[in-house]
TrEMBL record:
Boundaries of every VOC domain copy: 7-146
UniProt superkingdom: Bacteria
Pfam short name (any one): Glyoxalase_4
Protein's UniProt keywords contain Oxidoreductase: no
Key words, A-Z: Metal-binding
Origin organism lineage: Bacteria, Pseudomonadati, Pseudomonadota, Betaproteobacteria, Burkholderiales
Name of the featured protein: VOC family protein
């Protein structure tokens, strides 16, 4: 456990081919099932203070307590994912910490000198923010709010991974408005 931010709850991998990545993780590593959204409904997205409309595909699965996120950018919108790819990298891009008290944790982190770079919202009370803290690949820190439907979806994903037998390896994201 991080003595600063609690437990790392998610490992975020930026990939060129999300379908191939889901296949590898499920067949070779036995991780799944994957909950896949070909176009994540991100609202209020900003990168370095400017608004954009990203088109990102995301797949989520758990390996034990840790969630694995696969991310493929589908357009050329400025993002830390695009920066990572343009630097010639793929693979682990960020670690995420989850919070039920987003405003307090964000205030605490910015007071400690963390500088927000990219953020947005997925579902009600599902804000996220990435900080400019990468000292080597894979060390970008994300703070992700899980107080709303996104948190319920994350619980469903974790629960479905327990005892997963390999069947139905790719499933659609649940409708956040119904959670």
């Amino acid at each position: 456990m991080s003595r600063f931010l609690g437990e790392i709850r998610q490992l975020g991998y930026v990939v060129h081919d999300i379908e191939a990545a889901m296949d590898y993780w499920s067949r070779t590593l036995g991780v799944g099932p994957w909950y896949y959204n070909p176009k994540v409904p991100i609202v209020n997205y900003t990168y370095k203070g400017e608004s954009h409309q990203p088109h990102n595909s995301v797949a989520l699965a758990n390996s034990g307590f840790v969630q694995v996120e696969l991310i493929q950018t589908r357009n050329d919108v400025p993002s830390m994912y695009r920066d990572f790819l343009q630097a010639g990298r793929t693979g682990l891009q960020h670690v995420a910490y989850w919070t039920d008290d987003y405003d307090a944790d964000l205030a605490r982190l910015t007071a400690q000198g963390f500088k927000p770079v990219m953020g947005g919202e997925v579902g009600e009370r599902g804000r996220f923010i990435y900080f400019d803290t990468e000292y080597h690949p894979g060390t970008v820190i994300e703070l992700s709010e899980v107080a709303g439907p996104k948190g319920k979806m994350f619980d469903l994903i974790r629960e479905s991974s327990v005892g997963w037998d390999g069947s139905d390896p790719v499933r659609p994201f649940p409708d956040l408005s119904k959670l």
